[in-house]
Design brief:
The chain contains 18 helices and 4 strands. By secondary structure, the chain is mainly α. Strands 1-2 form a two-stranded antiparallel ribbon. Strands 3-4 form a two-stranded antiparallel ribbon. The chain starts with a helix and ends in a 6-residue tail after the last helix. The N terminus is likely disordered.
């Protein structure tokens, strides 16, 4: 056991001098093993592992099996300074030449870490040995590809992190590379205090909800931040993003079975004759770009833009026709919609809530159902684009 202890210490010590950021030895070691074990080790324990004071036999017992090579690879790729690649290769006495030396090295290090933490048969191969194998196999290339099982999570958030809008995939050499983590929206390791806070927003019941409903894709930065610090604002954002994604799926399924253009026309015909809305507001005659009203890398922005792109010209034509036929009632409808938006904005309502509230109000006036609500959401998206909704 002593040999393994020294090996892990030397492994960490060698890599630490090539770290990308100013981490402590404890933080560096904790980040290395965090995703590999079914236990939350303290920084003090990780510092002891790094210094060789505490044996790693406990880590081996808590190891998640099968070993998560991809997680180990991602750690080395994220935390080592790629600019020092030649120095790292020299430190491990690696003489071989690779087309992509940094990726090959990270993969070799992942296999070496697997050997250290998993092997009980006295196996002791050098990093150089694993590097040579990776030059031949190029198995590192598979670690960063998108898993088929993850695709639903990626596309439901439009391939962007719900928290910051960062792209979750990247096209490299005609292959779609992952830049995401799949995390639990409602964490299963909350403290009693955090559980009370999270439950006050929305409690999670595993018996009531399927696992899919509690998983979402985010960027690695915010996955790590959410794991280390249970941010209630992040929780709210992730809940909203998941609800939006589920609603989008239901909309897409419903649209296959309804004639959306006809539905929009019927609703607008009805609403231009309906006068029981809020008081009218002065119209802004200048169209304001959607990205000036809604964060342009958010799901809501993409949703609104896609609706406008598909139906804007059609709604323009209907409203122009109704304006002539009803002696200005289309303009009155626009003024009433703006009044609703202005009132909701005055009390600092979130954009997504404003759009949904107005859509439901229109649907209520139409005396519609779930299908007509989809058309009402499209109409509201049009008025976001046109100028009435979310305009100051």
């Amino acid at each position: 056991m002593e040999g393994i202890l020294i090996e892990f210490k030397e492994f960490c010590n060698t890599l630490f001098q090539f770290k990308k950021a100013s981490f402590s030895t404890a933080k560096f070691t904790k980040n290395m093993i965090d995703d590999l074990v079914d236990y939350n080790y303290s920084l003090d324990a990780c510092k002891s592992f790094y210094n060789g004071i505490k044996p790693i036999s406990g880590v081996k017992e808590k190891l998640i099996r099968p070993f998560k090579l991809k997680s180990a690879y991602n750690f080395f790729a994220s935390y080592l300074d790629q600019r020092k690649i030649q120095e790292i290769l020299d430190a491990f006495d690696i003489k071989n030449v690779a087309k992509e030396p940094f990726k090959t090295l990270c993969s070799a290090l992942a296999y070496k870490l697997k050997e250290i933490l998993e092997s009980d048969d006295g196996t002791d191969r050098s990093v150089s040995y694993y590097f040579d194998i990776e030059v031949a196999n190029k198995s590192y290339s598979s670690y960063s590809l998108i898993s088929i099982s993850d695709s639903d999570y990626i596309y439901e958030v439009n391939k962007r992190c719900p928290i910051c809008g960062e792209r979750l995939t990247e096209l490299v050499d005609n292959q779609r590379i992952n830049k995401y983590k799949i995390i639990k929206i409602y964490p299963d390791d909350l403290s009693e205090r955090d559980k009370i806070i999270f439950d006050s927003v929305k409690p999670y019941n595993e018996k009531k909800y399927c696992i899919y409903n509690n998983l979402i894709a985010v960027c690695p930065k915010h996955a790590k931040e959410y794991k280390e610090k249970r941010n209630i604002e992040f929780y709210k954002i992730l809940l909203e993003a998941k609800e939006h994604a589920k609603r989008k799926v239901l909309e897409e399924r419903a649209i296959e079975n309804i004639d959306v253009p006809k539905s929009i026309e019927r609703i607008l015909n009805h609403l231009t004759k309906y006068s029981n809305f809020d008081q009218e507001a002065d119209l802004n005659k200048y169209t304001v770009a959607i990205k000036e009203k809604i964060q342009d890398n958010s799901q809501l922005y993409i949703d609104v833009v896609s609706k406008v792109a598909l139906y804007c010209k059609y709604i323009d034509a209907i409203l122009s026709k109704l304006e002539e036929e009803t002696n200005g009632n289309a303009t009155t409808l626009a003024e009433q919609i703006k009044a609703m938006s202005d009132r909701l904005m005055s009390i600092n309502t979130k954009p997504a809530v404003i759009l949904e509230t107005i859509a439901k109000k229109l649907n209520e006036a139409y005396k519609g159902d779930d299908n007509s609500l989809i058309s009402c959401r499209i109409i509201v998206a049009y008025f976001v684009h046109h100028c009435e909704v979310l305009s100051k």
